[in-house]
Amino acid sequence: MENITVLGAGVMGTALAIHLARQKNNVRLWGTQWDKAAIECYRATGKCDKLKVEFPSNVEFFLSEELSKAMEGAKIVIMAVTSDGIRGITRTISPYISKNTIIANIAKGIEEDSLMTMSEIIEDSLPEQYKNIPVVKIGGPLRAIEVANEVFSEAIFASKNIEAARVLQRTFQGPYFKSDVTNDIIGVEICAAIKNSYAIVMGICEGMYENMDNPKAAIIARSCMELASLVVAKEGKTETALGLAGVGDLYVTSQGGRNRTLGKLLGQGKSMKEALEEMKNQTIEGYFAAKVGYKLAKALDEQRKLKLNDLSLLLELYKVLYEDKPAVKALKDYWSN
Fold first, then answer.
1. What angle do CA 80, 35, 256 make, to 5 degrees?
2. Distance between CA atoms of 131 and 187, rounded to whole angstroms?
3. Which end of the chain is more exposed for a tag (fewer CB within 10 A), N or C?
4. Per the CATH hierarchy, to which homologous superfamily does domain 3-183 belong?
5. Vertex 321 angle, CA 319 and 325, to 5°
6. Mean pLDDT across the stretch 69-90?
7. 291, 322 contact by CB (below 8 A)
8. CA distances to 107, 182, 210, 218, 224 from 262, in Å
9. What is the model's pLDDT at position 204?
10. Which pLDDT tens digit goes with each residue over 30-47?
């Protein structure tokens, strides 16, 4: 049993809080200023309608102004805020942590200017006296509604401090939840961030060839090979891209959601502008991830750690998303080379 604070009351943060409470942990779910309505609803009803579940009695709810109380005595702090909020939230919670705190992160992304992963941003944003606090990345194929509703799920916990990763593994373990651990935190972070882009390509295949499997099977394999190239270039492990963090997470991401929807519209012949308008300009993680993934690949190419042309799928996707190349032509060019 651990005292756990989950920061961020979106669907994933809420799902993790519910799961951890079911494993008999003391859980506090804290909402940012944008989560006020959700926290008030949870307090009033004891239910999360989006996830279609009731909260266990050992989940407490806290509004943004109640952070100090929410953080009191927390052994594990889980970051479940948006990627652009990680740096600010880390600095905000710094007065409330101790040298015994473990910080875990479910947010995914790479900062465009610095090319830092979310875990690197957390480490960079901590005060000097807390630089040795272990940071654990939570990766793998985790869909929030399935975690909350006790569907069999498996995660991977990655940290430079492998014992901290094992603490998370033990804390999350349950009848329908298992996990693995690794010290390849950079590999898990890169897979978590960039796989959203490759999910768009899977959608493009669906738009071009609905219910056909050959192209999608090839794309999921090639995507993981390209992820592996990026991971190895950053001194991570090939097997990370071929396991839960890579192929597992890519599969679940490509089965539904905004990345797949955008890709499907592009595969049906719509321009990028038309597809975005049809989606009412929703935030699409893979769209931004392709840009930063391309930038990361270029930087690694310049450092002679990989060859940019070996990432032909990512390069074609970048041309579709940012250079107005028709998606159908991009896939035909990819297949002809």
1. 60
2. 21
3. C
4. NAD(P)-binding Rossmann-like Domain (3.40.50.720)
5. 45
6. 95
7. yes
8. 21, 33, 14, 20, 20
9. 96
10. 999 999 999 999 999 999
Give residue 318's pLDDT band: very low, low, confident or very high (50, 70, 90).
very high
- pLDDT tens column, 98-126: 999 999 999 999 999 999 999 999 999 99
User: How does pLDDT run across 220-254, given as a tens digit for each residue?
Assistant: 999 999 999 999 999 999 999 999 999 999 999 99
Given the residues 195, 216, 237, 319, select the one marked as catalytic. 195
Taking the model in full, what pTM does it have?
0.95
Of the candidates 139, 131, 151, 248, which has an alpha carbon nearest to the alpha carbon of residue 187?
139
Helices in 149-237 by DSSP H: which ranges?
162-172, 185-208, 214-233
Among 30, 23, 18, 16, CA closest to 2 = 23
Chain center to CA of 164 = 19
How far, in Å, CA of 280 to CA of 234, rounded?
36
Residue bearing tokens 């929030």: 144
CATH of 187-336, one of 1.10.1040.10, 3.40.50.2300, 3.90.550.10, 1.10.10.10: 1.10.1040.10
Judge whether residue 281 has pLDDT over 80. Answer: no
Residue in the block written with tokens 């943004």: 64
Neighbour count for residue 99 (Cβ, 10 Å): 8
Question: Tokens at residue 231, please?
Answer: 């991971």
Assigned token pair, 73: 């005595």
Average pLDDT taken over every residue of the chain:
96
- Kindly report, as residue ranges, where domains of CATH 1.10.1040.10 are found in the chain: 187-336
In the chain, which residues fall in CATH 3.40.50.720? Answer: 3-183
Phi and psi, residue 143, nearest 5°: -95, 130
Work out the pLDDT band at 211, boundaries 50, 70, 90: confident
Question: Tokens 């090639």 — which residue?
Answer: 222
Distance CA 189, CA 220 (A): 18
